[in-house]
Amino acid sequence: MTCTMANWDYDYLIKLLALGDSGVGKTTFLYRYTDNKFNRKFTTTVGIDFREKRVVYTGTGVDGATEKNFRVHLQLWDTAGQERFRSLTTAFFRDAMGFLLMFDLTNQQSFLNVRNWMSQLQANAYCESPDVVLVGTKADVRDMRSVHARQARDLADRYGIPYFETSAVTGADVDLAVTTLLNLVMKRMEQSTYGGQGSEPNGSPVSSHEVEEASGRKRCAC
Ligand SMILES: Nc1nc2c(ncn2[C@@H]2O[C@H](COP(=O)(O)OP(=O)(O)OP(=O)(O)O)[C@@H](O)[C@H]2O)c(=O)[nH]1
Ligand SMILES: [Mg+2]
Description:
The protein is α/β, with parallel strands linked by helices. The chain has a single domain, classed as P-loop containing nucleotide triphosphate hydrolases (Rossmann fold, 3-Layer(aba) Sandwich), CATH 3.40.50. The chain has helices spanning about 25-35, 85-95, 110, 115-125, 150-160, 175-195, and strands spanning about 10-20, 50-60, 65-80, 100-105, 130-135, 165, 215-220. Strand 2 and strand 3 (about 65-80) form a beta hairpin. The longest helix is centred in the C-terminal third of the chain and has 21 residues, at about 175-195. It is found in: Endosome; Membrane.
């Protein structure tokens, strides 16, 4: 059987990366986003992994005014939260264009650690203020919640980044969090393309041959 999506051309290859403590739900979130399914089993990520998805982004054309649809190939890097993989995972920060910084709404410590993850990002990402979306996971587990929405929103405001509360069980706001991050990244790219600098970040338009599948799980050889 031929997978027609595998042969699509695309205009942009966008690399997003999920980070946060072990167990906050990075793998489960990405699985919900790409496959629209929930996985209850906890299998900790070893090192790094990635998933892929094709989406359409509506932006502006060359004149900076006309609306145009761009085919975007999303590469979603899934990092291990465990400390022992830290040097490997932070090495991947440099190549990513946007970040899903996740904590578990039922785990106060994972929220306190957001500051540490942010420092890691500032030290290792493409610039000191990369495009980041803060994500509070497991919003469906209401009775065990230990992080108040206001606390999280205050922190996100301090960093000047959007904040979403998501559930991989119900799918609530999973798409919205990724789409918001994609929009930030694409806006930045449009600015650098049409804003006078004439250069693009490492997400410049690419041809389809670099990608094998439109959706599904891939494992890095590292
Ligand atoms: N109820 C509920 N459980 C969730 C949700 N997201 C993740 N989980 C559960 O939390 C556990 C850990 O999820 P993972 O996605 O494996 O966590 P991770 O952040 O990838 O962990 P590492 O790979 O070790 O960094 C699993 O048992 C998931 O089923 C959610 O939104 N709601
Ligand atoms: Mg994982």
